[in-house]
Amino acid sequence: MQHSIDIEAINQQIHIESAFLETLLSETAKVIVGQNHMIERLLLGLLTKGHILLEGLPGLAKTLAIKTLSGAINAHFSRIQFTPDLLPADIIGTLIYNPAKSDFTVRRGPIFANFVLADEINRAPAKVQSALLEAMQERQVTIGDTSYQLEEPFLVLATQNPIEQEGTYPLPEAQVDRFMLKVKIDYPSKEDERQIIRRNLNDDDFGKISQVVDQEQIIKARKTVRKIYMDDKIEQYILDIVFASRDPEQANLASLAPLIEYGGSPRASINLALASKAYAFIQRRGFVIPEDVRAVCLDVMRHRLGLTYEAEAENVTSEDIIRQILNAVEVP
Predict the structure, then answer these.
(1) How many CB atoms lie within 10 A of CB 292?
(2) Are strands 73-74 and 213-214 parallel, antiparallel or unpaired?
(3) What is the DSSP letter of 55?
(4) For the stretch 82-100, what's the b/e string if a residue is b when 16 or more beta carbons lie within 10 angstroms of its beta carbon?
(5) Can you give the pLDDT at residue 164?
(6) Distances (CA, A) of 31 to 46, 68, 156
(7) DSSP E strand boundaries for 153-269
(8) What is the pLDDT of residue 163?
(9) Would you call the peptide bond into 153 cis, given omega within 30 degrees of 0 as the criterion?
(10) What sign does the dihedral 183-184-189-195 (CA atoms) show?
């Protein structure tokens, strides 16, 4: 009875506090046609402090979606175009010597923003990637002897192009694990692409959006997301999924054992639970159901599985393995 009272109260709170999502989505829809999955995943990151890696072919509105979302929120946006000659100081900032005063002053880099777009992150060398990923994890930057806290909300949205290998530095698996979600972007439908053509050719105001959400609303919503009720059975379901990726034989999936080099880390369990709560929030619900877990599982887990050479030889992807796990693990 206590749970039902609590859930009812949370439901009412969520119904009020999630109202801004409709305004935000209608504003982004002025610019972004279709790509609902990508926009929804960006909102998940926004509601959970989770950084997002977007992977897709050129021209699929990855950068535009991020710029549009940040433009609709009253927040500071910065874009870093990753190139092979980029240095860590170009991201976090550096100390500049001032001859007139005979001392050093701090010049802050573009990482000091609420929304940081790391465009084509795999084009910069490991030292630069590490500088960004340290800021993502610690939410602070050290310049000289002083550490500077990054302001909330702080969100890194990185993009990478999967088809070009020359002149790229793929992110190591341990660093990719720091991204809450890895979202794969696909081509728009024919009807959506027709709308994209018409908007670009006919609308002079195309791309102009208004700031409709404040930072305070985002921070408040993040606190509410964590209050969403998650039953013990849902927690067990999440653990069963993640542990099946580590030891598939225990989940009666012995055929997957030769294909998996390593499974999801504890970050996978944490992020799967958190993303499920945020997904329930977007659905304006005060409790998590198994469908929430299944809806976000691919994006949370796909970059956290290591595949063997045997899997690559058989053209088995991490998505194939996750789907098999979801089909095998008992749903509460």
Answers:
(1) 24
(2) parallel
(3) E
(4) beeebebebbbbeeeeeee
(5) 61
(6) 19, 7, 21
(7) 155-160, 181-184, 213-214, 260-262
(8) 66
(9) yes
(10) positive
**DSSP 8-state secondary structure symbol assigned to residue 171:** P
Q: Please state the domain extents for the chain.
A: 2-202+214-218, 229-328
Is CATH 3.40.50.300 what the domain over 2-202+214-218 is classified as, yes or no?
A: yes
Residue 38 near residue 169, CB atoms below 8 Å: no
Pairing state between β 103-108 and 93-98: antiparallel
Is residue 4 pLDDT above 70, yes or no?
no
Note whether 105 and 95 are within 8 A (CB). yes
In whole angstroms, give the CA distance from residue 323 to residue 329.
10
- The residue-averaged pLDDT of 58-82 equals 80
Burial of 68 (0-12, 13-18, 19+ CB in 10 A): buried
Q: What is the pLDDT of residue 275?
A: 94
Please spell the DSSP secondary structure of 100-124, one letter per residue: TTTEEEEEE-TTSSSEEEEETGGGS
With a CB cutoff of 8 Å and minimum separation 6, the contacts of 295 are: 276, 279
For residue 314, the number of C-alpha atoms closer than 13 Å in the C-beta half-sphere is: 15
The pLDDT of residue 243 is 92
Looking at mean pLDDT, say which of 61-75, 101-115, 231-245 comes out highest.
231-245
What the block records as the tokens of 129 is: 């990637």
Other CB atoms within 10 A of residue 212 CB: 16
Instruction: Please state, in angstroms and rounded to a whole number, the distance separating the CA atoms of residues 35 and 303.
Output: 21
Distance in angstroms (rounded) separating the CA atoms of residues 263 and 246: 4
Is residue 177 a contact partner of residue 153, using CB atoms and an 8 Å limit? Answer: no
Edge-to-edge strands, sheet with 52-55: 77-81, 115-119, 155-160, 52-55, 181-184
State how far the Cα of 192 lies from the Cα of 85, in Å rounded to an integer.
Answer: 37
The superfamily CATH assigns to domain 229-328 is Magnesium chelatase subunit I, C-Terminal domain (1.10.8.80)
The 10 Å Cβ neighbour count of residue 127 is: 11
Nearest to 62 by CA among 185, 209, 210: 185
| Token digits of residue 79 | 């874009």
* Token couple for 159: 């993009």
